[in-house]
Amino acid sequence: MSYSQELEAIAIAHGCAGFGVTHAGPFSGLADTLRQRIASGAAGKLGFTYKDPELASDVRQSYPWAASLVVVSWPYMPAAGQPGPPAAGLGRIARFATRDHYSGLRIALEAVAARLEADGHRVGILVDDVRLVDRAAAIRAGIGWHGKSTMVLDPRFGPWLLLGSVVTDAVLEASAEMVRDCGKCDACIPACPTGAIVSPGVLDASLCIAHWTQVTGVIPRQLRAAMGDRLYGCDECLDACPPGHKVMEGGRQGAGRVDLVEILAADDHTLRNRFNHFYIPRNNPRYLRRNALVALGNATAAAQEARTATSVEVEQIVAVLAGFLGDPDELYRIHAGWAMGRIGGRVASVLLQTRLADERETEVARELEQSLLECGGAAS
Length: 380
Ligand code: B12
Fold this sequence. Notes:
Layout: H1 3-13, E1 18-23, H2 30-40, H3 53-56, E2 68-75, E3 90-93, H4 102-118, E4 123-126, H5 134-140, E5 145-146, E6 152-153, E7 161-168, H6 188-191, E8 197-199, E9 202-203, H7 209-212, H8 221-224, E10 230-232, H9 236-239, H10 245-248, E11 257-259, H11 260-265, H12 268-274, H13 285-305, H14 311-325, H15 330-343, H16 346-358, H17 362-375
Parallel strand pairs: 3-10
Antiparallel strand pairs: 1-2, 2-7, 3-11, 4-7, 5-6, 8-9
Helix pairs in contact: 1-4, 13-15, 14-15, 14-16, 15-17, 16-17
This protein binds cobalamin.
Cobalamin is lined by residues 30, 33-34, 37, 46, 48-49, 94, 96, 127-129, 132-136, 146, 148-152, 159, 161-164, 200-203, 205, 208, 210-211, 214, 233-235, 237-238.
C-alpha cells in the first residue's frame, strides 16, 4: 500500500465518498474568473472566496510550506432525507443543512491530518474557507467533474457531496483527473426557478435563491415568490440532476421541514442555538426571520391554491405577520407586508392599509403600496 492509499483508507473508513491528491500550486485562471464574476455582478453580495481572489486561488499564500492538497468528498444523501409535502405554515431547509452534515467531513479530515502529523508533516484543514476554492481543488484531485450547475458531481452521489481538504508539506503523488462530463444533459439549467445558471458552469449568484438566504439586506421583490417555502439554501438544481437521483431514494421524509410560525416566535438565543450550523450574516437571526416571513407567505399562498389550508390556519398566520408589520425593524415590515400581499384577502388588505397610513420610511411605504395592490386592495 502506498502512503496515499493509506491516507485514502483512513478517509473512506471515516465515511468519505471520494479521495484524491493534487499539488498545492496555484489554480491557473481562477483568480481571473473570480475577478470577472465580481466585476459582472455575478458574485452577488458574497464575501467568501470573492473577498480576495489571489488568496483563494493560491493556497501557498496562506501556507508557504504547502506541497500537496489531500481532497475528500462527503456524501450527505440519503442521510439528509427528503422534505416531504408542503403545508401552510411549513418551511424547508436545503439538504446540506438539515443538520450539521459538515461535522462528519471535519472528523474525517482531522483523522487524515492526524496521520500526516504523526508522521512528522505539517497540516492545515480547509473547508468552506476563504483560502481555497474547494471545487477547484476537488476537480484537480480527480474527485469528480464540473456539472453544468457548477456543482462537483461524482457517479455514485451526483451533486450530493460536501468537499474539504488537508493541506500538507508531504510530497504525495497526484491523482489523475476524472475524465467525465454532463454530456448532453442540462436538466439543472431550466430547473432553476430564477434562471441563475446563466450558461453551463456559470452561476449568477445575484439570482440564486441560496445566495439570498445567506446575505444581508432586502430580498429583491422579483425573486421572493420563486423562493417558495425555502428558509435556508436551495436544492432545485441538485434535485434535477440525474446522477444524484438513485441516492435520493430512501431518505427520511419530512427532513428539513420546519414550523415557520414557531421560528418567528422564537427569541434570538433560541434561533442562534437551533441553527448554529447555518451561515447567517454576522450570526444575526433577523436575516433568518426575514427568510421565514417570505417562506411563510409563499407556503400559505401555495396551500390556499391547493385548498389544503383552513381559514383558521390562514387567519392565525396573518396575525403572526401583522405583528412583524408593526415592528420597528423595517426589514421585517417590508417582508411581512410582502407576505401579506401574497396571501391576500380582506383582513390582510385592511392591515396593510392601516400600516401604510402610519409608515414614515419611503422605501417601506413603496413596498407596502405594491403589496396592497397585489393583495387586491387599493392604496388610498
Ligand atoms: C460562495 C459559495 C456559494 C455561493 C455561490 C456559489 C457558486 N456557484 O459560486 C452560493 C451562496 C450561491 C452557494 C450556493 C450553494 N453552495 Co456553496 N459555496 C460557496 C463557496 C464558499 C465558494 C465558491 C466559489 O468560490 N465559487 C467561485 C466560482 C468561480 O466557482 P464556481 O461557480 O464553482 O466556478 C467553477 C466553474 O465555473 C468551473 N468551470 C470552469 N470552466 C467550466 C466549464 C464548464 C463546462 C463547467 C461545467 C464548469 C466550469 O470552474 C470554476 C472554478 O472551480 C464554497 C466553499 C469554498 N470555499 O470553495 C461553497 C460550495 C461551493 N458550496 C457548496 C454547496 C453544497 C452549495 C449549495 C448546494 C447549498 C444549497 N443547497 O443551498 C448551493 C449550490 C448552488 C450552486 N449551483 O452552486 C459546496 C459544493 C459541493 C459540490 N459538490 O460542488 C461547497 C464546495 C462547500 C463545501 N465545502 O462543500 N455557494
